[in-house]
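Researcher: Going back to the complex we discussed earlier. I've cleaned up the inputs and rechecked each line, so this should be the final set. Can you rerun the prediction on the complete assembly and write out the structure?
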Amino acid sequence: MKITQIAGFLGCGKTTLLLKLSRKIAGEGERKIALVVNEIGEIPVDGKIFEESGMQVKDIGGGCICCEVASTFAKTIYRLYKDFNPDHVLVEPTGVAVPHQVKLAARMGSRDAKISIGPAIVLFDATRPAELLDMDMLGQLVTTQIKDADVIAISKVDAVDEAAVSESAQRVREYNAKADICNLSSFSGTGLDQLTDIILSWEA
Amino acid sequence: MADPTASDGHGCYTEYGVSGYGVAAKLSRKELMNEDFVKNMAESMMVSIAQNCMELGARCIGHIKSHIRTEAGTIKADTIGASHGSYSNGHLTKPVKELFIAINSIVQGIPEEAVKAATLEGLHEVSEQRGLFVIKEKEHTYFDEFDFVASKKDYIKQLEEQLQQTDDEDTSNGNG
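Model: Rerun complete. Updated structure for the full complex:
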């Protein structure tokens, strides 16, 4: 069971990507997929959307899985392993979660289970790079997310021109020299195959 | 590095000034509402809430998301800020007179009470403008026992029962 997180700040397109990506990874019934969705607003709107898609979904509300409800997340991972044993668990943390903290919490759940940690894929919204990076408090959070990424997906590339995409890529590269950077549009499908391949072939 | 299991009642996001608020409500209208009407109403509501938050001092809209359930299908609408516009999808198979809506607002720069005020104002203002009545509302829940595979009759009963709990709690608290 491999655990992959789709992280990134609020509104960057995580939910839309997760819906598309989960179907791609599942293939034609080749792999069992489970989704873990976490929201801090205490109303798991996204979880309800995923449930309608027919996926195995675990909602975690009431706080952030990287801190407040990390132990709940760890227990959820373990229970998924025992009860459903999917090939892949795709995790959508809150938009304010810190990816390395989510990894730590996932590892807690893997003590008694055969679990591997997949990549931390962090989305960066190409439609508002300045809004995200240049504000004092938010900028710190977003740059922390970028620094923790194994893969950075520049999202919503269909909504901006090539120059804006390049600008976003350059800006995130300043904070993370190692991560793979790819372009993503969940609407047009750009980058979906690449991310699927990365997740499937990833070895921690 | 912080202990990921530690909890002091505040999330990592609080230090970044991020606050969230969620509310669920039942809305009703005398005239039928088709898919376009519901989508347009939901999109306006998302933008209205975002604008209200900014007017109250928010620095950034994380997201305002909504999920609408009716006997004829589901509509989702969201925004990441008024200047970004709003987006909706979903489908209704026929016009409806009633709907259940859940809204989740996550915003940076204002406290939860302000996010709550902005969200409720947007919910009520846009509803009123479009001729809808807010029949019931309940914060911090999302129809917890909601079962999407239940029959239409059953899920409406589930939603009604959960919203009814609020009435009972309010009454027992002397707020009824």
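Model: Worth noting: The longest strand of chain A covers residues 116-125.
Researcher: Good, that matches what I expected from the previous run.
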